[in-house]
Amino acid sequence: MEKTKQTVPSVVPRHVAIIMDGNNRWAKKRFMPGVAGHKAGVDAVRAVIEVCAEAKVEVLTLFAFSSENWQRPAEEVSALMDLFFKALRREAKRLNDNNISLRIIGDRSRFHPELQTAMREAEAITAGANRFVLQIAANYGGQWDIAQAAQRLAREVQAGHLRPDDITPELLQTCLVTGDLPLPDLCIRTGGEHRISNFLLWQLAYTELYFSDLFWPDFKHDAMRKALADFASRQRRFGKTSEQIEAGARV
C-alpha cells in the first residue's frame, strides 16, 4: 500500500465510474493466460480505491462484468466467477474495516446461487459503512438498467399508482439501480479504447470522459491522481456557455 499522500485537487468528482479494460491484453503481452490479467487487476482496484478515498470521492463504480461478457470463452468466464467469489469473501471485512460500503449492481439472476449468496453477505458485512461507496457492476448493461426502470414504472401505471404523463426523466432516473446516488462526474476507461460499451448509458449524459492508454493492471495511484487532476482542470457547462458559468462563479 502506498503511504505517501499527495495534494488533493481543488475540484473533486463526487462519483467516479471506471471501465476496467485491458486485462487480457496485459496478460497476452506477457505470454500469460487471460485470467492472470484479471488477477493482476485486483491490485489496480485497491490502488484506485485508496486514491479516491484519500481525495474524498463519495462513490466509485467499477464495471467488472458486462451483460455481454458471457459471450467470452467458457473457461475465462468460469475463472472470472471464481475470482469474483474469492474476492468477495476476502475483501468484505477489509472494506468494512476501512468504512467502505459495498454495493453490487446488475442482474444477479444468471449467477450461481452460491455467488449470489456471497454477494448478499458481502453487502451485509459493509452495510453500516458510510465513508465511501464502492459499487461493482456485475452482469450489468446500461440498456438493461433503463429497461428495468421502465418496467418498474409500467407496473406502477398498471396498478393505477401512476399516470403515463407522470413519468418524467427525473422519475425514471430514480428507478435506475443507481437512483439514490449522485450521477457520475467522471468516467475513466483504460486500455486505449474510446467507447462506453453499454455502461451507465443514462447516467453518463453529462459525465466528463477520460481515456487512458494504460491497461487496467497498470492503472495505479499516479494514473488515478492524473485523471483526477485532469477532471479538476475542466469547465463543466451542462449546456450553458463558458460566460454563463464564469458569471455564476463570481456571484
From TrEMBL:
Location of the active site: D21, N69
Top-level lineage group: Bacteria
Enzyme class, UniProt record, top EC level: transferase
Protein name: Ditrans,polycis-undecaprenyl-diphosphate synthase ((2E,6E)-farnesyl-diphosphate specific)
Cofactor: Mg(2+)
SUBUNIT field: Homodimer.
Residues where substrate binds: 22-26, 38, 66-68, 70, 72, 189, 195-197
Keywords, ordered alphabetically: Cell shape, Cell wall biogenesis/degradation, Magnesium, Metal-binding, Peptidoglycan synthesis, Transferase
Function: Catalyzes the sequential condensation of isopentenyl diphosphate (IPP) with (2E,6E)-farnesyl diphosphate (E,E-FPP) to yield (2Z,6Z,10Z,14Z,18Z,22Z,26Z,30Z,34E,38E)-undecaprenyl diphosphate (di-trans,octa-cis-UPP). UPP is the precursor of glycosyl carrier lipid in the biosynthesis of bacterial cell wall polysaccharide components such as peptidoglycan and lipopolysaccharide.
Any one GO MF annotation of this record: ditrans,polycis-undecaprenyl-diphosphate synthase [(2E,6E)-farnesyl-diphosphate specific] activity
Known EC number: 2.5.1.31
Gene designation: uppS
A GO cellular component annotation in the UniProt record: cytosol
InterPro entries according to UniProt: UPP_synth-like (IPR001441), UPP_synth-like_CS (IPR018520), UPP_synth-like_sf (IPR036424)
Cofactor note: Binds 2 magnesium ions per subunit.
Family, per entry: Belongs to the UPP synthase family.
